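call fold(seq) -> C-alpha cells
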Amino acid sequence: MGTNGSMTKYMIVSASRSLMQIYKLHFKEVARLTDAALTPCHAIKRSSNKITPSAFVFVIGIVGLGHMAVQILKNVYSATIIADDKLELAKKYGADYVVRTNKDIDTVAKEITQITDSKNVPLFSTSSVTIQHWP
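ret:
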C-alpha cells in the first residue's frame, strides 16, 4: 500500500507494510484505522519539518480524519493544536484551543493570531487533506 492507499478485499503487502495486532483488539475492530489514521498521517508527515513542539497547527474539520489528525499531532509531534468545528470533541482528543470558523475570515484570522502571537500556523484541512500556511 502506498501513499494513495488501496481499496480491495484482499491484497499482497510486504511484511514491512503489514499491521501487527494491537493489544487485544481484533483486526476487524482496528481495520478502519488504516484509512482514518494513515490519511492524515501521510499529509502531516509531508510537513513534519514545520511541526515542532513549539509549533501551532490549525486543524479544520474535527470529524473522522480531523480527530485523528489532532491525536497524531498531539501525541507524535507535541504541537499546540487549534481546532475548529466540534469544539468539545476537539478538546477531548487533544486540541489546546478551539475557534469557531462560522464567522468572517478576518475575525477567525484575528483570533488565531492572538492565540499564536502572530506566528505562522500550518493548516491541516480534512476537506483537501493538505497543509498550507494560514495568512
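The two ends are 35 Å apart (CA to CA).
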